[in-house]
Every structure is written in structure tokens, then in C-alpha cells.
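USER:
Try writing one entry.

ASSISTANT:
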Amino acid sequence: MSNSILDHLRSTFTPTAVSELSRALGEAPGPTQKALDGLLPAVTAGVINRTTGQQGATQLYQLLRDTPFAQDPTLSQLVNVGDHRQKAAESGNGLFKQLYPDQPNRLAEATAQYSGVSLGSAGTLSGLVMSVLMGFLHQQFTSRSLMQAQLTALLLGETDSARLAIPTGFAALLGWLLGAPRPVSTIPLRTETIPPASRDDHPAGTVWWRWLLGALALLALLFLLLRGYKGDKTQPMSESSSSVASDTVASDLDGNGPEVRVAIDLPGGRKLSVVEHSFTDSLARYLAATGRQAPRVFNFDNLTFETDSARITAQARSHVDDLIQIMQAYPNLQIRIEGNTDSTGGEAINDPLSGERADMVKQALIQGGIAAGRVRTRERGDTKPVASNQTAAGRQKNRRIDVVITKL
């Protein structure tokens, strides 16, 4: 899809929103986050699994076509208004039961067993995830006028990413929901079995064009998803290496290369889906390695700010949430956030602005549950550019954050 299903769900169930949700449910933040870390990919994979058969694919298509979905609310709205939250959870659970009528309570039971939340909270969380997921699929379905075969092909294209993101301990409880893994080579053939009309309505000689349409849909999906290889952006914190890091970051941020997403295992059973060799990928791999040393500096290359402002751009919010999850998985980790600006404006403006940006990131981490004592800040102004300040694209790259590992 043009937007990854999991990316959309994670942008809704941010660590800050999950913290508010845990309070509304009377649960501790840790078990609530653990439950959602499992539910987001598991519910996604379970819905996709239903499309592997003609009956399930048709049923999902009809649900998206006929269900009157309300405008997608934010999770904060669902948290703050109990009636809305309950209705959304009931709606999501109702849709789930239509797809899995023989398993009405097993998902909530597995979630409670895996995460430690109560059975009632597990039911609410699973319903909310299903409600947000189906609302997103409905928006994609209507805005792109998808036919059943197109919808199915696009969903099947996200099978592997959803399955890989499910924590192992949770996946072991969900065989009934996930089904058996399918070889990628079978996907184009499966699209042939799900047109709205019966196969008997068409001559046998016309079946080939259905395969062709399915294959073309998958090729289009691959073209959108595959974005290229990036270089590693970790470096020892020393003056001699600063120019190398700047060159690497400038080339990585030019947007010309394809991006490859990978699943990262974190301590405690969490998983992240990140761009290979991005900031979060490099940081997580460094922390998991043996013989690591501090200090170490990482260029937070996908965290950007609005011009002349300390406001983090909307596109960068999910990357801050990834950093929160990494710090939650490594409770002894301490960092220093260094703010940088472009050269627009004088030193009297840029220096305090870079400090405000660093403080803004620190506040986002604190709101996500990270202790304030684990995070320090520093303003650097426009003294460490990584690209030319003569272009708009270069100035955007220079409005950035460096994360320094100070203690492991």
C-alpha cells in the first residue's frame, strides 16, 4: 500500500498515546505496551491471512464496502472519551468476530496471557487495534477505488513484514490466527481465485489475464516499497571522524536511493520495523553488539524540524517513538541530544534555537516514559553543517539532531 499498515498503526499507537491509554484502562504502561507490540502486527497478519482464501477475501472486501466507518479518530480522543473508546473497541471486536466467528475470545485470552494485562483490557486493546486497522483499510479502499483482486494483492504484499514483527512468544499462541507461512511465489496465483464473480462465469481461456493483473499489482507494490541501500551512520565521537559522518549523512538524505525495511529484535521481546542502515537500525545494532564503547555519536538523520522552529515535523514523529522503544529496552542507556540548525538567521537566533530543538526531543522522550535523568541536551547552532546551506534541501538536512551515547 502507499502507506504501510504497520506504520499507520504505530503512528496512532505512539508511546505517549499508549501511556495515556494504560492509565485509562488502569493498567501499568509496560504490560500495555507489550500487549500492543504484539497486537499491532498480529491483528494485521490475521486480517491478511483471511485473504488467502476466496471466501475470506470476499468477506473482507464486503466488510470494507458495506460497513459505515466513522472518521478515523486519534487515539487521544479514544482515551479521553470513554464512550468513544468503548464503541470503537466494540466495533473492532465485532468486525474481528465476523472474520473469525469460531474464535470470539481467543485473541484477548492470548493477549492477556502474553502481556499480563487483564482479560477485559486485552479485549479493549484488541478491539481498538482492529477498529483503527479496518478504518485505515477502508480509507485506502475508497480513496483508491480498489477492486477485490487489487485489495487482496496489496494486502498479501505485507504478509512478511507483519509476521516478522510479531514477538515470538506471542506468535506461538496464535497459530489459529496466522495460519501457515506461504512461499512468496504462490502470491500471484492466489489472486486468480478471488474475483467477485464465480470462475464458472468465464471461459477457461480468459483466466490468464487475472494472473497478469495480480502480477502487475505486485510489481507496482514492490516498486513503491523498495527504496534502496543506505550506508552506516555510526561513528566514534572524535573530531577526526566528523567530516566522514557529514558526507555520509548528506548522501543518505538526498532521497535518491531505495529503502529496505528490516525487523530489529529488542530485549524484552519487542520488535521494530526500520529502514536498513538508518539511525534507529544503526543504534539498535550497536547496542546489541559486544565490545561496544561510549561515547558514540549517531546522526539522527530522519529527525527534521520546521524552519525557524523547534517543532518536529509530522513525518519525523515515528522515529522519535522508535528511539523511545530502544531506550525502554535498554534501561541503563544514557544519551546527550545535540541540536543543530541551518545558517538562516544570526548566531543569537541559531544557538538558542538548536537548544530548544534538543529540549523538544528530550520532552518527547520524557512524555514517552523515559526518565529525565537519562537525557541531557546541548546546543550547537550552525557550527556543524552536514550539507550546503545554499539550498533548501541542504538547510533541511542541517536542521537536525545528533544523539551521543554517554553511558551504557
